[in-house]
Design a protein that fits this description.
The longest helix has about 45 residues, at about 210-255. It contains 16 helices and no strands. The protein has two domains: about 5-240, Up-down Bundle (Rhopdopsin 7-helix transmembrane proteins); about 280-395, no CATH class. It is an all-alpha fold.
Length: about 400
């Protein structure tokens, strides 16, 4: 694998960590939030320190041949433990049970990391091996045991996490289920990674050379598992937030025609105060909705039920559905009111004010906004002279 195959997943996981940092700062006391960030950080660190250029730099900086090997093994073991802890905290249960299971996994993998360091110190690995350390030293006393311990610990975490995620995914739904299935895929890839490494080591014990499994195929599977782990853990946490903001952005866009239409009634005074450019879609939507309500209050006295009825009748005559004709009628009423306000006309004392329809415009502005944008009937009302309306031609509407 090229160095980029290590660094790209590392950067991807650091981006995922950056997404979670605000939540970490806000909810530092939450063990679930802390563990999510730890998983992502250790996953990225594992790829970074496993890259051949980083291995070379670390070995040279420490002056110890293959110093990177126990370092990378320790990081990956800590990553495995943090994934198990995350599943335990994520799934929840009685607090005493969660604490007991968490402490067991923490103690077990802490012991694994200590043994990795001790075995490396007892062994003899004088020749730097940047990509094939596992198979090159597979028969070296103490180093052999270190490699085997690392692989077994990693496989254990991969197998347990896969089973836990699989069982849990069958019991839940929504974003959580999607994230768990992605985690299952990611940990199956991790399990395959450990299995290929172990197969290459066992083959070396038997005098065979299966080094390609360890140096080429296994790292590729590990690189594929990284985005699965990041997405799987983040999706249930970030997914609802993304949907919430996407819906807010969609509604914000849908209200655009009504926002602009009402803005014409008072071109010198904005409908709402300014907000920072970095405001979230939800904040922007709140501003637009408030501005629209203020705009409707401004033009409301000019609403004329006769204009609405006429436009609705025309829309029905064109073959529009009842609901669509109602929306067009309301939009025409708004357009006519904005037109009259712009022209400085006084409120027509003979206009029929339908308070129910005014309330309907306030409670369903998106439907009116859509009709303002696409209806030729509304466009005609917007262009026509107020004198052309029935109220100005002597056909006064009853009060």
């Amino acid at each position: 694998m090229d160095s980029s195959d290590y660094y790209i997943p590392a950067v991807a996981m650091m981006v995922g960590l950056a997404v979670k940092l605000p939540g970490l700062v806000k909810d530092w006391r939450d063990p679930l939030v802390r563990t999510v960030c730890l998983v992502i950080a250790l996953g990225g660190a594992g790829f970074f320190f496993a890259a051949p250029p980083t291995i070379t730099a670390v070995n040279e900086a420490t002056g110890t041949a293959n110093f990177s090997s126990p370092l990378v093994y320790g990081i990956i073991s800590a990553f495995s433990a943090s994934c198990l802890l995350l599943i335990v905290h994520w799934r929840g249960g009685p607090p005493a049970y969660v604490r007991r299971v968490s402490r067991r996994w923490q103690a077990g993998y802490a012991l694994v990391i200590v043994l990795l360091v001790v075995l490396f110190a007892l062994g003899d690995a004088p020749a730097d091996r940047h990509t094939d350390f596992d198979t090159y030293y597979a028969t070296t006393p103490f180093i052999r045991e270190m490699i085997l311990l690392y692989l077994v610990a990693h496989m254990t975490a991969a197998l347990v996490t896969t089973v836990l995620c699989w069982r849990w995914a069958l019991q839940v739904g929504g974003w959580l289920r999607a994230g768990l299935w992605i985690l299952v895929v990611g940990w199956l890839l991790n399990l395959a990674f450990s299995g290929l490494k172990l197969a290459a080591v066992v083959a070396r014990w038997a005098g065979q050379d299966w080094g390609a499994l360890s140096t080429t195929l296994a790292p590729l599977l590990s690189a594929l598992s990284a985005p699965c782990a990041t997405v799987g853990f983040l999706l249930p946490l970030v997914g609802p937030w993304l949907v919430w903001n996407w819906r807010a952005a969609r509604t914000y866009r849908e209200l655009g025609p009504l926002w602009r239409e009402l803005g014409y009634a008072s071109p010198r005074t904005p409908l709402a105060g300014p907000i920072p450019w970095y405001s979230s879609p939800h904040v922007r939507l709140t501003q637009r909705e408030a501005g629209i309500q203020d705009g409707l209050s401004l033009v409301g006295p000019w609403f004329d039920g006769a204009v609405r009825t006429r436009a609705q009748t025309e829309a029905a005559a064109e073959g529009r559905s009842f609901d669509e004709a109602v929306r067009i009628g309301r939009a025409a009423m708004v357009a006519a009111a904005v037109r009259d306000v712009r022209l400085g006309l006084p409120v027509d004392p003979h206009a029929l004010l339908d308070h129910a329809e005014i309330s309907a415009v306030r409670t369903a502005p998106a439907s009116v906004s859509a009709a303002l944008r696409v209806s030729p009937i509304v466009a005609a009302v917007r262009r026509e002279s107020p004198a052309a309306t029935p109220a100005e031609d002597g056909e006064k509407s009853p009060r």
